[in-house]
Amino acid sequence: MNIESLLQEKISAGAELLFGYKPEITQLQLQQTRKEFEGDLTLVVFPFVRFSKKSPEETAVQLGNYLVEQVPEVEKFNVVKGFLNLTIGTSYWIALLQEAFRNENYGLKPVTDASELVMVEYSSPNTNKPLHLGHIRNNLLGYSLCRILEANGKKVVKTNIVNDRGIHICKSMYAWQQWGEGKTPQSTGIKGDHLVGDFYVMFDQQYKKEIAGLVAQGMTPEEAENQAPSILAARELLRKWEAHDEETVGLWKMMNGWVYEGFDQTYKELGVDFDKIYYESETYLLGKEEVLRGLEAGIFYRREDGSVWADLTAEGLDQKVLLRSDGTSVYMTQDIGTAKMRFDDYPISKMVYVVGNEQNYHFQVLAILLDKLGYEWGKGLYHFSYGMVELPSGKMKSREGTVVDADDLMVEMEEVARKMGEELGKLQGLSEEEAARTYKMIAHGALKYFILKVDPRKNMMFNPEESIDFNGNTGPFIQYTHARIQSVLRKAAESGLEISGAIPPALQLETKEKELLKTISLFPAVVEEAGNAYSPAVMANYCYELVKEYNQFYHDHSILGETNADQRNFRLALSVSVVNILKHGMGMLGIELPERM
């Protein structure tokens, strides 16, 4: 039992004995003591006053005396107004360090056969364009969330739904037919997803010209958008695809194959993967079957034009189309089919969708529709809703001035990391190959950390140069601290020093040593909080606080130069524990830590 839980139990028992009032454990507010006051943990005593019938100060003193008598770990206390500051004895902190040092999985919960199975969907790209900056945030959040849930003892299935059918890919297919001249990734040297994306851009340019021409002839903009030859041709391709036209399906398979190869390269470079990939082309028919079943059961209704709708006005929403008048499906139809297929494939207890906040309404509707169709698990769907990410104007290359390719961004990040690292002389002495590998690690660490340290629900601005700063709340700062600690540990090994967990329980602790231990003690609770809040930002910012505390300790105290063998061993054990926690904590963010920098 950790010290907070132990104290909560004893405080509850003490309040009952002293004041005739037994508070719920969850109501007890224990927090880290502010650094300007003496103590380690602080209890807010104001809620006890109406039962003690005494002043806050007198109430705190009574509780403090009780805890000193009943809890050996509580060494002393002091009272500041209505706050009881408790000082935890050295032996507790030494025991905690021994646990962190000896247990490589300190703070993590084991995954067992009985663990809850959670499926997390992320990425969800369309096959008409490359992955972009928004996909980077999506993939990093999704992958990190999976690692955090695993650290909380959950079994996790990482999944992706590829939107490989529909009008978007038909636009690229039509453009290739018209202007492709037989081009392939092999013949052009262009990555497959980029090549298909180029044709999507061509379609858009032609489509806009046609709309302008039709409007000039007297059509309304809405009429022109529906009657333009390009969009009519793309819709015809979609109809032919759904009718299994051999030539259309062959073109679709070829162009999607190019895209999948491109996606796989980007995923590998980004360091994310999936256990199972679903394709809309394989799930939309199941979705249509479910919608038609709902129609027969009177859950949905058909309009005069043949389209099928759900009436959600009773739920405070509006009408939602599920099948168009021509019988083709919409995203909602596909998501119903995919959800059913997933729950048929796996005994999932929880389904998490990592999708931007512009789709909040979509997932609200999906949960209601699945519930209406009789699936109890529909209500348990969780939409991990996150904000948009943008770049400062002119910082990076973009297509059409708005979309930044993931591949372009990662290449640019490596160039920025190399430039800044060389200016600071960070990797002097490394071989060219090791330096290149480390610059890549720094670039990816900077990108991932900068994106993941922000509360997922917030919109954010991504600045490549700012993210690679070697000082402040950045990935490279944490990576550099890790490399610094590894350097100390290498020198210790070279000097023949053996690091052990045999530390005298009465060892005198310096202030910075104790502060670092207190931060180490928080790791298990941070892992749990990050999992409960579905927030990689909680873990990212903890890692920053940990390295800040370590750097302050490192600045104030010699490690290898310490002449007292017990004190030196303690500080080395402290360093090993920080390395292990960083390995797990940054690993949950998908970030690698260099041994040398």
SSE layout and pairing:
Elements: H1 3-19, E1 30-32, E2 41-44, H2 49-52, H3 56-70, E3 74-80, E4 83-88, H4 90-102, E5 117-121, H5 133-151, E6 155-162, H6 167-179, H7 185-188, H8 192-216, H9 221-227, H10 229-242, H11 246-270, E7 276-279, H12 280-296, E8 301-302, E9 308-311, E10 319-323, H13 331-345, E11 350-356, H14 360-372, E12 382-386, E13 389-390, H15 406-424, H16 432-452, E14 460-461, H17 464-467, H18 475-494, H19 511-521, H20 523-532, H21 536-556, H22 565-587
Parallel strand pairs: 5-6, 5-11, 6-7, 11-12, 13-14
Antiparallel strand pairs: 1-2, 2-4, 3-4, 8-9, 9-10
Describe what you observe in this structure:
This protein is an alpha/beta fold and 597 residues long. Among the domains are: 3-88, Arginyl tRNA synthetase N-terminal domain (Gyrase A, domain 2), CATH 3.30.1360; 165-273, no CATH class; 411-587, Isoleucyl-tRNA Synthetase, Domain 1 (Orthogonal Bundle), CATH 1.10.730.10. 55% of the residues lie in helices and 11% in strands. The strands form four sheets. A five-stranded parallel β-sheet has the order 7-6-5-11-12, sandwiched between helices. The longest helix has 25 residues, at 192-216. The chain is globular. The two termini are 38 Å apart.
Rg over alpha carbons: 29 Å
The CATH topology of the domain at 411-587 corresponds to: Isoleucyl-tRNA Synthetase, Domain 1
What is the percentage of strand-forming residues? 5-15%
CATH class of the domain at 411-587: Mainly Alpha
Uncertain runs = 394-401
The H-level CATH homologous superfamily of the domain at 411-587, spelled out, is Isoleucyl-tRNA Synthetase, Domain 1
Query: How does the overall form come out from the CA principal axes?
Result: globular
* Secondary structure tally: strands: 14
Kindly state the mean pLDDT as a whole number? 93
The CATH architecture of the domain at 411-587 comes to Orthogonal Bundle
Q: Tell me the structural class.
A: alpha/beta
- The residue fraction in helices comes out at 55-70%
